Amino acid sequence: MRNWKAAAVLSVSLPALVLAVAGCGTSTNASTSKPLVMSINHNPDNLTPGLGSLAADDGPESLLNAPLIYLDQNDKWQPDLATKWTESANGLTYTFTLNPKAKWSDGSPVTPQDVVYTWHYYTNKNIHFTYVTGWNKVKDVKAIGNNQVQFTLTSPYAPFLSTVASSYIVPQKTFSKWTANQINHGQYDSSPVGDGPYILKKWTPDQELDFVPNPYWFGPKVKIQHIVYRIIPDSTTAFNELKAGNLTIGTIPAADVNQAKSLNSQFNLIKPLNATYNQVTPIEHGFLKDVKVRQALDYATPRSKIVTDILHGMAVPAADDQVPGGYWNDPNVKPRAFDPQKAAAILKADGFTKGAGGYLYKNGVKFEVPIWTGSTSHTNILIAQVISQAWKSIGVDAPVKTADWSFIFGQNGPQFNGKMEALLFSWGQGVFPDDTIDFNSKYIITSATSPGENAEHYSNPQMDKLTVEGTTLASKSARQKVYYQIQQLEHSTVPIIFLYWTKSEVAVSKNLHGYQQTVFGTTPVWDWSLS
Predict the structure, then answer these.
(1) Taking 50 as the threshold, does the pLDDT of residue 18 lie above it?
(2) Is residue 427 within a helix (H) or strand (E), and if so which, with residue range?
(3) Better-scored residue on pLDDT, 276 or 499
(4) What is the rounded CA–CA span in Å between residue 121 and residue 457?
(5) Nearest-angstrom CA–CA distance, 313 and 290
(6) What is the residue-wise DSSP string for 448-485?
(7) Which of 188, 357, 414, 423 has its C-alpha lying 20 to 30 A from 444's C-alpha?
(8) What is the per-residue pLDDT for 432?
(9) Euclidean distance between CA atoms 208 and 418, whole angstroms
(10) How would you classify the pairing of strands 422-427 and 371-374?
């Protein structure tokens, strides 16, 4: 997932005191056995299903919740809450059989009525969801007997499994007692009730989240009795904790890859390609509305230098938003070569002239585009500085500005000030091709609580048509052709400036067994064990 999922963030302020969540007869081994320790770079902003906007939410949420189905590390759908499912020949109906043993973490059964309620929950316009793509395609959800539920769609929707069926289900009796405003303000976070393999035992803001096994978990028995997510904003600090043996799994920052060999005695090193790309989002105000201007900035962005000098080769230059080498990726779409002379020529032909300070002006307006990124993201800051200098060389004033992500993506941040701004961050669309919420004009965000991810305010009728078409075609090969066209349109119109796809150098303790990681994800947590 994305380091920052973008759009709405921090709808709830974390309490100053430790958040202790009452256990339900948890295992006595939890306090004595060796914990699995990982790190995240920020407090989760929300653990309520559908409301979280930070990547820091993803891991904790996955421990607390079980969707109907999940995608495994081999790109195959597997049963989770549902034991099996069927799709009608016309693509309009999906029927799921729920695990009869499924219970919530408070001991109450998971019922088809909970799934029906979840449909109403995700379509409640008064709740500030970050990502509910696909639920608007659902016409009806009905319970069938004691353990089946049937979804009826308004029209065939190809990404149904990757959007709706893989969403987290919520307990009706817990959520129905709250107003939308209470849900928006994190009422659930004080005592989360999930159907996943773990429960939250304790949350100490700015320090850690502690998880122990859910005594009512209905799936494969978990072997690890204590999982800790430590909150470590600084990547160098996290790496030092990894070297000290205080983390079980950790990503080695690009700046420290040369030190990776020092970990070999304690860790196995893996280098998966992530389904995450780094990007510069030019918010389309002023000059940035002009596609020629965006093309010029793309030519003036030194991707290869960034990959070589800052990332030490731990990345692949990006041309579009589909995973390189994957089924949906058009191999004929290539990143623009770094060519500042061509960039300058495009801007000159577009009416820009050099003025005071050697900067470009048009109609008396200076071409100034601040580049914003997270204040604790050292690698992003270095990248922003390189891009800033490259853009300055063609006459664009691009000062680097840093702030907490909660400000950058918040209502008072640069997304919504109506000025020419650029945001540098990473985005994890995953391995699925649907990019409707990113580039369809229906999903242009106008406030921090707007649904969608079109932060750049990009609007193109052809893109709108193609993104809709890509979700409705039943034929996989026909969909591939559509997504090829989308990538070609991304390249020609530059809604965002794609920088690179990340490769991770991940250190995994030799004491951790059963853990595998691919571009599609990891093995499920119940496969993991510690020695």
Answers:
(1) no
(2) strand 422-427
(3) 499
(4) 27
(5) 33
(6) TT-SS-BTT----HHHHHHHHHHHH---HHHHHHHHHH
(7) 188
(8) 80
(9) 37
(10) parallel
State phi, psi for 340 to the nearest 5 degrees: -65, -30
Cβ pair 240, 384 in contact under 8 A: no
Q: What is the mean pLDDT of residues 244-248?
A: 94
pLDDT per residue over 429-455, tens digit each? 667 899 998 999 999 999 988 877 899
**φ, ψ of residue 70 in degrees (nearest 5):** -140, 155
Letter for the amino acid at 325?
G
Backbone angles phi, psi at 143, to 5 degrees: -80, 140
Q: What is the Cα Rg of the chain in Å?
A: 23
What are the structure tokens assigned to 57, written together?
A: 């939410």
Quick check: 15 pLDDT over 50?
no
Cα gap 114→197, rounded to integer Å: 18
The DSSP output letter for 100 is: T
Convert 361-397 to b/e letters by CB count within 10 Å (16 or more is b).
bbeeebbbbbbbbbbbbbbbbbbbebbbebbbebbbb
Long-range contact set of residues 131-134: C-beta below 8 Å, sequence gap at least 24: 131/5, 131/50, 131/437, 131/451, 131/453, 132/50, 132/167, 132/451, 133/159, 133/163, 133/434, 133/436, 133/437, 134/159, 134/160, 134/163, 134/164, 134/167
Tokens for 301, please give them.
């962005």
CB count within 10 Å of CB 222 equals 21
Q: What is the 3-state secondary structure (H, E, C) of 131-178?
A: CCCCHHHEEEEEEECCCEEEEEECCCCCCHHHHCCCCECCCHHHHCCC
Q: How far is CA 515 from CA 91, 183, 388, 522, in A?
A: 35, 34, 40, 7
For residue 228, give Cα distances in angstroms to 38, 143, 208, 524: 6, 37, 7, 16
Distance CA(307)–CA(349), nearest Å, equals 30
CB atoms within 10 A of CB 36: 24
Q: What is the DSSP string of 46-84?
A: --STTT--BGGGHHHHHHH--BSEEE-TTS-EEESSEEE
User: What element of type H or E holds 251?
Assistant: strand 249-251
Residue 1 is predicted with a pLDDT of: 25
> Token pair of 259, please?
């030190």
Q: Provide the token pair at 302.
A: 């030194």
The partner residues of 144 in beta bridges, in order of sequence, read 148
pLDDT attached to residue 12: 29
* Span 177-235, pLDDT tens digits: 999 999 999 899 888 999 999 999 999 999 999 999 999 999 999 999 999 999 999 88
**In 10 A of CB 74, how many CB atoms?**
11
Q: Helix (H, G, I), strand (E, B), or coil: what is residue 202?
A: strand
For residue 37, the cross-strand partners are: 228
Cα angle 58, 84, 433 (rounded to 5 degrees) comes to: 45
Q: Is 287 helix (H, G, I), strand (E, B) or coil?
A: helix
